[in-house]
Structures are given as structure tokens and as C-alpha cells.
Amino acid sequence: MHRAIVTGGSGFIGRHLVRALRRRGVDVYTIGRQLGLDGKHIVLGGDDWNADALAGILRTVDPECIFHLAGTAVGPGEELTRVNLGMTEALLDALASVHLRPVLVIAGSAAEYGSAIRNGEPIEESTPCAPCSDYGMSKYAQTHAALRYADKTGNPVLVARIFNALGPDMPSHLAIGDFAKQLASMPRGGGTLKVGNLDVRRDMIDVEHVATLLCRLADHPAARGIVNVCSGQAPILRALVEMIMVNFGEPIWVELDSARLREKELRTIVGSTKLLSDLGCAPPKTDFPALMSRIAEAARCQSRISHIR
């Protein structure tokens, strides 16, 4: 791979992916809604994101691979579908109109599996999907559109179903991101950390490992269709919270916030890494203490910047 496009390149996973690609010598162009990374960033707002505009970009860049990460994880159901499915359909229409055959990597989500997940059983790619959240349904619709396009055109498509990516500057709508933000904003002398159920285990993966896996899978001719991007490790959330609190060195009280509790929450959700291993892309083990330290330091830096502003 010599030339690639990353949509959503200024997002959480996108930033790490762009750096990983450029370390490999890939000429990377990014597309996003805001002014971005450098001269190879293309601004394309909501109303401008259409098949004609995208087709023009594709003709100019002529990418060997497109990583489609642009989308949203928050908002009402109609908005999630409009953005996650709508942006994908526009990109697929653009690809069809220019007759290019780049590898298309779609960022899917473990939320697509939904109620098909069985407590503690590793989730394989063959697990029938039964999304039960608006976000999961919008991502599942996105997956269907991408796989239909692959079947119709024969063009190479990979849906990378990403589990819980952790790393510096992760968004605060994710639990660890929210905890880090709360901790970084506490005054000297400590404070209270509000949490939901911490006695759950979730498949967590370092965002740097996600970026590396996306690069490797895109280059792998057999990595097509659906592939889980997960660690196969499901640490208990309470342990991660304790790891991150250590980095702040202040007395912290943990308080259960009933508004953060979810009904009928499964105790353990973990992805299967069998297919990744079969492809020669087994994920490395995650150093969770070091990862929590990186997240804490980034949260402190962001808090200092916010106070200066």
C-alpha cells in the first residue's frame, strides 16, 4: 500500500491510524468536517459529503486503500442512521461512479452483535447479529451496505468490527474516557469519582494495536468480509479504574451513580481472536497499567489546556 484515504482521520482511532500508516511510508490523505491535520487534509462538511464530491476526491487521489472511520456514536437513532449509513452509501456510490478498486476498510463495531452475545463466550465473526442499541443498528446497516457492494462489484471490502479501543484522548462518552476526564478535573486534595457497574469484564484493546491491525489487515488479501478487531482480553472494569486512579496521587472516593447503571448488563463480553490469528495478525498482549498511565497523562494535559483557555 502506497497511497490511502482515511475518513474521520482527526477522530480518536483515525489519528492513531494516520500516524501508523505514515510510519509505514504510506502517502495518507484525510477527509473530515473540520480544518485538520496538514495540507493533505480535505474538509468536507455534512452537506458537502455526497457522491459527486467524494468522486472528485477519489479521482484526484486514486487511493489503493480507503479506511472509512467517519461517523458518530452519539445522538438519536435517526441521526445515527443518517450519518453512519448515509455517509457510507455516499462513499459506495462515489466508488461505483469512478470505477476504482481500492481496498475498502469499514470501521464496524462490536455493538452490531447486540443480544446475540452470550455471557463469557468469545464472540466469533459467524455469530448472528442482533443489535439492540440505535448505534449498533446503524453500524449493522452500514455493514450490510458495504457487503452488498462487495458482492455486487467484486471489489475488496473489509468490515473491521472494533471492540473497546482505549488510549490517550479517548472520547468521554466511553467509560474510561469519562473516568479520566473526571479525575483530571478534580481539585488538589482529591474528590469523588462517579461510576456505574465496575464489576463487569469487557474486551479492551489498545488503540495503537487497533491502528496496527487495521494496517496489516488492509494489506492482507485474505482479510475480507468481517474480521473482529479485539484483544481477547477482558479485564474487570474495577481493576482498570484502580490502575488509572493510581496515576493521580490524590485521595479519591468512588461513588455509584444509579443513572449510569444498565439493565440486564452482561458480566463478561469478549471477542474471539481466532480469525485474527489464522490471518497471522494475532493481537499483542495489552499492558493495561502502562495504558492507563498514558490515558491519565493525556487527560491531565487536556485539563491544563482547558484551564488556560
Q: Which oligomeric form is depicted?
A: single chain
Number of strands: 13
Q: Helix- and strand-based class?
A: alpha/beta
Number of domains: 2
* Portion in beta strands: 15-25%
Give the helix level as a range of percent.
40-55%
In DSSP terms (H or I, runs of 4 or more residues), the helix count works out at 9
Say which CATH homologous superfamily of the largest domain is assigned: NAD(P)-binding Rossmann-like Domain
What is the radius of gyration computed over CA atoms, rounded to a whole number of angstroms? 20 Å
**Main β-sheet description:** 7 strands, parallel
Q: List low-confidence stretches.
A: none
Inertia-based shape? globular
CATH domain fold name of the largest domain:
Rossmann fold
CATH class of the largest domain: Alpha Beta
As laid out across the biggest beta sheet, the strand order is 3-2-1-4-5-6-11
Mean pLDDT: 93
Q: Which series of helices and strands comes N to C?
A: EHEEHEHEHEEHEEEHEHEEHH
Overall description:
There is one protein chain. The chain is of the alpha/beta class. It has two domains: 189 residues, NAD(P)-binding Rossmann-like Domain (Rossmann fold); 91 residues, UDP-galactose 4-epimerase, domain 1 (Alpha-Beta Complex), CATH 3.90.25.10. The protein is 40% helix and 18% strand. It contains nine helices and 13 strands. The protein has a seven-stranded parallel sheet, with helices on both faces. Strands 7-10 form a two-stranded parallel ribbon. Strands 8-12 form a two-stranded parallel sheet. Helix 5 crosses helix 9. The radius of gyration is 20 Å and the shape is globular. The chain starts with a strand and ends with a helix. The mean pLDDT is 93.
